[in-house]
Amino acid sequence: xxxxxxxxxxxxxxxxxxxxxxxxxxxxxxxxxxxxxxxxxxxxxxxxxxxxxxxxxxxxxxxxxxxxxxxxxxxxxxxxxxxxxxxxxxxxxxxxxxxxxxxxxxxxxxxxxxxxxxxxxxxxxxxxxxxxxxxxxxxxxxxxxxxxxxxxxxxxxxxxxxxxxxxxxxxxxxxxxxxxxxxxxxxxxxxxxxxxxxxxxxxxxxxxxxxxxxxxxxxxxxxxxxxxxxxxxxxxxxxxxxxxxxxxxxxxx
Length: 253
Ligand SMILES: NC(=O)c1ccc[n+]([C@@H]2O[C@H](COP(=O)([O-])OP(=O)(O)OC[C@H]3O[C@@H](n4cnc5c(N)ncnc54)[C@H](O)[C@@H]3O)[C@@H](O)[C@H]2O)c1
Known about the structure:
The chain is of the alpha/beta class. The protein is 44% helix and 17% strand. The chain is built from 7 helices and 9 strands. The strands form 2 sheets. A 7-stranded parallel β-sheet has the order 3-2-1-4-5-6-9, with helices on both faces. It is globular, with a radius of gyration of 17 Å. The protein binds nicotinamide-adenine-dinucleotide (NAD).
């Protein structure tokens, strides 16, 4: 049990990668604070963890609300009695070319995907540094934090920024014992991407961008997140690890 009795807080834990990561942490002995803007889904993740014999608490949290972040992080720390790991998984995406993207949509995506990561990381780091404890943050960047694809300007910009923020925090916090890393998943089947799979041609295109000619599953992302958060990655900080089935290896001929 790599995380026995550790306190893990996860944003966007009601669905997809955040949900699967919450379940995996609980299976490894952690007490998990499952936060999501959608309180029903956060509660359902907690139910699933408890059904499997794990420990978790649900919190409603909009990661773009600075006041709420402060309140929920304090409440979660109290419920878990310690805080060791933060997973920033809450995320949204647009599908719109840059020429048509409304300003409001640009702001929505940047706020959730970038500002939310900043606010939650700051709350977590303030708590740990005030107590002089060590810990680990894992951010959900994306393959689109390392390369681009058309029609996702705010998403691609926000994920590149998360890669940068991960480097920045890794550098600043290196000596404090708080490691900060990110993962860059390829297309992973979750609510975020489900519409791709409703159209067989689109599903084939999605498969073909990965060298392995398939999409990823949330559990495959969760396992690498747990590795980065664990002592097995004790000399890693400031990096973004692609989990992309070979997408970034190059283009097929
Ligand atoms: N699925 C993929 O193919 C893929 C690929 C690369 C990166 N990612 C990233 O992984 C993360 C998780 O994505 P997913 O595929 O699990 O998506 P998902 O839609 O299944 O889950 C995202 C969760 O975030 C929550 N959320 C949205 N806005 C929020 C806010 N303001 N505050 C708190 N919670 C909020 C949603 O309610 C949802 O439960 C995202 O950051 C996403 O960009 C996903």
